[in-house]
Amino acid sequence: MLVKCEGIVIRSNDYGESNKIVTLLTRELGKVAVMARGAKKSNSRLSSISQPFIYANFLFQKSSGMGMLQQAEMIDSMRGIREDLFKTAYASYISELMDKGTEEKKPNPYQFELLLQCLKKVNDEYDPDIITHIVEMKMLSVMGLYPELNQCVHCKSKEGTFHFSIRDNGFICHRCFHKDSYNVPISQATARLLRLFYYFDLERLGEISLKPETKKELKTVLDLYYEEYTGIFFKSKRFIDQMGEMKKLLNDNNN
After folding, report:
1. Is a pLDDT exceeding 80 seen at residue 205?
2. Fewer Cβ close by (within 10 Å): the C or N end of the chain?
3. How far apart, in Å, are the Cα atoms of 234 and each of 79, 89, 111, 226?
4. Cα 177 to Cα 38: distance, rounded to the nearest angstrom
5. What pLDDT shows up at residue 255?
């Protein structure tokens, strides 16, 4: 049976001498893997549409096993991403997060739209750090993780100064800091952003400029949280971290 789906390539792996296995996040079917025969050949009609981040209407032969990609109609090549090493790194991590945090063949139009909007914003020069942290927050519920972001995890107070408790899975107020001596100190701006990124609609996102220290706090909380609760190792995340160190070193040398 031939199936037509609106999808985005989130992973593309070589298979044999000339084929590729292409993993798509689709609006209609969720995450699906399809075989693209001959896609490794430069003259193949499947070569260009088997690349990561391609947004297209895909036509494939559906079967009980792996489907067979027949053709695709390109909607957006995300050219801005693929021509920039830094954008490619962030887009790779976002795609890997979607891939590893999503079960196969479970339709989730909201998740598809989240990926599409995120890639478009990275492609269009939006701050990739902000977009990445939004995806990290929004993927938590997809993976069955629900941090307490509305009140203190202990006394339930909504007033006061808040830090983040990795152990207790959420905000902890100044009255309860002693209950987790390893809580992560964060500014109130960071606390507001964690809550905002978790709940709000990405389409409503305007221009946000974050201080370096705020970005650092967001990264610290999210890195520790993912390490504690997901058990997933992201290869592309390591590359982003290495790039961050390299940029910092270059800035220090220039100063």
Report:
1. no
2. C
3. 24, 12, 19, 10
4. 59
5. 59
